Amino acid sequence: MATGMSGMDMSSTAAPMASTPTSSPSSGMGMSGMGMGSGCKISMLWNWYSVDACFISSTWRITSKGKFAGSCIGVICLVIALEFLRRLQREYDAYLVKQHRVRNAQTHSSVHEQGSEDGHAPDIEASGKGNYDSNRVHVTSASSPAPDPVTNPKSQRLVPTVFQQAIRALLHMLQFAVAYFIMLLAMYYNGYIIICIIIGAYLGSFIFSWEGIQMTDA
């Protein structure tokens, strides 16, 4: 009886010990992220998942090839939108500079006219017959202020107003948010999504970077 009891005790203790290693493969599978509880396919390595792939959250789950194609087109449009926001910021800055120069030109013109009305003709240095450099026109009145920076655009420095800077900061915030979202998509290491990001960057640059190139003399 003692021998039988000891045999039963040994078999009962061996059973849980044998069942313990079987739980490690399932836990390893859960840690790798290859199969989620919701059926999403996610990997931290390069992959070509299409159907059942998930991005950002479990609600963005690809259930068909058509939905995956729509997601790829959406990613391309998202990157193009980022390039559009960058162009919009450049155009807005150019608009502020142009507005500032127009305002300075109007101020310079009013000072010039005021000097003419006071009987002090502007001193114009002619560079040719009937031609002169408008950048060298200045009023010779003793009470006239120093030449306005409009005569030398390179020396101007524009400080935006609070409202203008708020708009510039808003455009920067939108660029940051879109770029961060694109970075999160790229971190899924899905080959199709990364290719779409590259295509979107090319198309966005082709469309919104097509502008004049400043040419300066050496």
- Helix fraction? 55-70%
Point out poorly predicted stretches. 10-33, 124-144
The profile of the biggest β sheet is: 2 strands, antiparallel
Which percent band covers the strand fraction? Answer: under 5%
Radius of gyration: 35 Å
SSE topology string: HHEEHHH
Number of strands: 2
> So how many helices?
5
The whole-number mean of residue pLDDT values reads 75
Strand-pairing-aware structural class: mainly alpha
Strands of the widest sheet, in order across it, are 1-2
Shape: elongated
Q: Separation of termini?
A: 106 Å
Report what the structure shows.
The protein is mostly helical and 218 residues long. Helices cover 57% and strands 3% of the residues. The protein has five helices and two strands. Helix 3 packs antiparallel against helix 4 and helix 3 runs parallel beside helix 5.
Element layout with pairings:
Blueprint lengths: L1 H18 L3 H10 L21 E2 L1 E5 L3 H53 L44 H25 L4 H18 L10
Antiparallel strand pairs: 1-2
Helix pairs in contact: 3-4, 3-5
Task: Please describe the structure with a list of short key phrases separated by commas or semicolons.
218 residues; 5 helices; 2 strands; single chain; mainly alpha; two-stranded antiparallel ribbon
Give a short synopsis of this structure.
The protein has 218 residues and is mainly alpha-helical. It is 57% helix and 3% strand.
